[in-house]
Automatic annotation (TrEMBL):
This is Solute-binding protein of ABC transporter system. It is a lipid-anchor. Belongs to the NlpA lipoprotein family. Keywords: Lipoprotein, Membrane, Palmitate, Signal, Transmembrane, Transmembrane helix. Its main location: membrane. The chain crosses the membrane at residues 12-33. Gene3D superfamilies: Periplasmic binding protein-like II. It is found in: Membrane.
């Protein structure tokens, strides 16, 4: 009975601590907002996915502060970009900075969002990871490989598998190939579509997985852990759909405050922060 009471007390304590953590986060966020407002400044909320870009946005904030812009950036993290776009379309966010052109265009086409890119940031690769193998030559027939289930990243992941020689696509220049575009599968692998954010956690049970770099960073891993890294060429036109962007609502695309944020992002200091944060695995695409 005493053990049961102790366990119950422990659970209650954990519940209280979790609730307290949420309260503290809320207070800090509100404090930032109030401080900016009281000083005559402007708070701009930016939707991101995960927290892998925190150091980059800190560098942007420093640029804004050095200019005495009066702008305070408040990032809001989402687990999935679909929800970030939904929040922005509903007016709950000012900007988003997590997606590439291809993903944005897909969202606009499917959901009718009135969103537009106002600045380019970097290009991020999709690489192949494995906890089981050390080389693409190790994969054998029947091995399962997890790839993202949204159309644009499914296509990118298939191009990675094509580049690695595990499959052969009918046309590897096609914008968004699907599994139906696989011409040959010499390795005999089984490709399974999964939520991109969940793929890292699936690796113990899968032979391999392909997912976005931000999820790799958030999991405490490095792109150097990749079994296979697809080559990056930001100057190649075929990479254009996969350049990450800062996005605003259509009616705010000419917002002067947002333009200052984009200008602050497009600086050498932020380019250096991107390179340092991602250890060279992510390539800034803007001029400064």
């Amino acid at each position: 009975m005493a053990t049961s009471n102790k366990a119950k007390a422990k659970r209650n304590l954990i519940t209280v601590l979790v609730a307290l953590a949420f309260v503290i986060v809320g207070i800090v966020g509100y404090s930032i907002y109030r401080n900016a407002q009281s000083s005559g400044g402007t708070v701009v909320t930016v939707g991101v996915v995960g927290n892998s870009d925190d150091a980059i946005w800190e560098a942007v904030q420093k640029e804004l502060d050095d200019e005495n812009s009066g702008i305070t950036i408040q990032t809001k993290a989402f687990q999935d970009g679909i929800y970030a776009n939904q929040a922005q379309a509903n007016g709950e966010l000012d900007l988003t900075a997590f997606q590439h052109y291809a993903f944005l265009n897909q969202e606009k086409e499917q959901k009718g969002y009135k969103l537009t890119a106002i600045g380019e940031t970097y290009i991020s690769p999709l690489n192949l990871y494995s906890q089981k193998y050390k080389s693409v030559k190790d994969f054998k027939a029947g091995d399962k490989i997890a790839i993202p289930n949204n159309a644009t990243n499914t296509g990118r992941a298939l191009k990675v598998l094509d580049s690695a020689g595990l499959i052969k696509l009918k046309d590897n220049t096609k914008a968004n190939p699907t599994v139906d575009d696989i011409a040959e599968n010499p390795s005999g692998i089984d490709i399974e579509l999964n939520d991109a954010a969940a793929i890292i956690n699936l690796l113990p049970d899968y032979a391999g997985g392909i997912t976005n770099t931000n999820f790799i960073i958030d999991a405490g891993m490095s792109v150097d852990d990749a079994l296979y890294q697809a080559p990056i060429d930001s100057g190649n036109k075929s990479f254009k759909p996969y350049i990450n962007i800062i996005v605003a609502r259509d009616d705010q695309k000419d917002n002067a405050t947002y333009k200052k944020i984009v200008d602050a992002y497009h600086t050498k200091a932020v380019a250096n922060a991107i390179t340092k944060n991602y250890k060279g695995a992510v390539v800034p695409v803007f001029k400064y």
